[in-house]
Amino acid sequence: MAEKTVQGAQVVGRVAQLLRIVGRSPEGGAALPAIVEASGLTRPTVYRLLNSLAAEGLLDHHAETGTWHLGPEIYVLGAVAANRYAIEDLARPSLQRLADETGESAFLSIRRGDETVCLLRVEGSFPVRSFVLHEGVRFPLGVASAGLAIMAFLPEAEVDRLLDDGGARAARFGPAHTAERIRANLEATRRNGYTVNPGLILEGSWGMGAAVFDRQGNPAWALSLTGIEQRFRPERQEFLGKLLLEEAHKITQQLGEHVSAR
């Protein structure tokens, strides 16, 4: 019985992993070789699980391109789950205000485990944009402005655990993501209240972020702005940071009021 329980948990973990991998490519879909590589599983295992998920409506397979996409059942489940979480409805006006007042693209990201996932995007009026961030994209905590903003306000023991990654962040995202460099950015975030990402993922693509806290005071979400370097000069950062903090504070307060009213 114990062995069956372990095997069952392993299957659930693999299914969740494959859904997350496919979900990272919401528009173009994910090809089988890319899913196999990202999952670390064997090709037959991945193919079998993908087809099982498709049979349940959790995934779709595009016959012409060979790519896999999130299926209609995921949409239904997401719509039902959305009724329990007010964050998107609360955040949308803040994102719109940020985009209107700055001209930059504004985003809401959520913490999921050791990652952040972008949930919402509102485009600003400035014609030149950065496309590093989009709905569904995931980054490890400590990478990108949302992940830095959230990580900065986690307990120190948790920060230590996250940064003890054997250099995985630096290997994937470049030398600006060593533990030492991330810690320096976290300290600056704590001083200012907001974080600045000076093109650390893609040269010339800058971002700034501020954490949104749940009712228990945990950093669970983040607002961020992204754009080209020229729009994030030092003389403008204070203005952008102030706006981010104001909107993040509004959402944090509204979340508390929403929970209290239920």
UniProtKB/TrEMBL annotation:
**Could you confirm whether the keyword Transcription appears in this record?**
yes
Name listed for the protein in its UniProt record: DNA-binding transcriptional regulator, IclR family
Q: Give start and end of each IclR-ED domain.
A: 73-257
Query: Taking every annotated instance into account, which residue ranges of this chain make up the domain HTH iclR-type?
Result: 9-72
| Pfam families in the cross-refs | HTH_IclR, IclR_C
Its domain of life reads: Bacteria
Instruction: Give one GO biological process term.
Output: negative regulation of DNA-templated transcription
Q: Name one GO molecular function term.
A: DNA-binding transcription factor activity
Keywords carried by this UniProt record:
DNA-binding, Transcription, Transcription regulation
